[in-house]
Amino acid sequence: MCGTTSVADAALAAQAGADALGFIFAPVSKRLVSAQVAREAGLAAGPTVARVGVFMNQGLGEVLRTAEAARVSAVQLHGPLAGLYVKQIAAYYPVLRVVRPEELAGAAREWDGVPGVTLMLDAPEPGGGVPLDWAALRADFPAGAWLAGGLGPANVAQAIRELSPGAVDAVSRLELSPGRKDPAAVRAFVAAARGELSTVKRPDVDNSAACAD
């Protein structure tokens, strides 16, 4: 459940059964949140809910300082980033490396077996609410990768059937306005995702309804 900006929405997501919350620290985002609010929201969600800090083209020091202040448990990285930079972050936090459809095949080869790094496939415009062509991406979609991009209660089950992702991420289709969650949509999304993920049979993959951009 990404784009979390308040304690109330964090508690809502946790109560609905989300496994992870996403807190966006990229300055360009409409859902920008402070490290203090993210930390408070993470505490409100409880210890069983993962907390993902979302960054885009930000310096190594800034990412690490913000992640520590917010007490996140993983870091999601957007943008054209050097492999060494990603590995440096992965030395401190599990990393979700976000890629676009045209980057997927190359990224799957680059990061296959690299400790601490999991791929996340997202739309060209993160948070834009536009779904991907899942069927066209099936051949290149790596086992265990996360899936984002235009997911909501009405289409998440189909997306899971098409790609069998390790986890799913949603934001724009779960909102009343940018940064403000729609309780009914949040509950419906988690129920639909969990219902479909429970049918996915893939060894050594933790299938969970989760968050990120």
TrEMBL record:
Signal peptide range in chain numbering: none
Domain of life of the source: Bacteria
InterPro entries: Aldolase_TIM (IPR013785), PRAI_dom (IPR001240), RibuloseP-bd_barrel (IPR011060), TrpF_fam (IPR044643)
One Pfam family this sequence matches: PRAI
Catalytic activity from the UniProt record: N-(5-phospho-beta-D-ribosyl)anthranilate = 1-(2-carboxyphenylamino)-1-deoxy-D-ribulose 5-phosphate
The protein's enzyme class: isomerase
GO biological process: L-tryptophan biosynthetic process
UniProt keyword terms in alphabetical order: Amino-acid biosynthesis, Aromatic amino acid biosynthesis, Isomerase, Tryptophan biosynthesis
Molecular function, one GO term: phosphoribosylanthranilate isomerase activity
Residue span(s) of domain N-(5'phosphoribosyl) anthranilate isomerase (PRAI): 2-191
Cross-referenced PANTHER family: N-(5'-PHOSPHORIBOSYL)ANTHRANILATE ISOMERASE
Family assignment from sequence similarity: Belongs to the TrpF family.
UniProt-listed HAMAP family: PRAI (MF_00135)
Protein name: N-(5'-phosphoribosyl)anthranilate isomerase
The organism's taxonomic lineage, starting at the top: Bacteria, Thermotogati, Deinococcota, Deinococci, Deinococcales
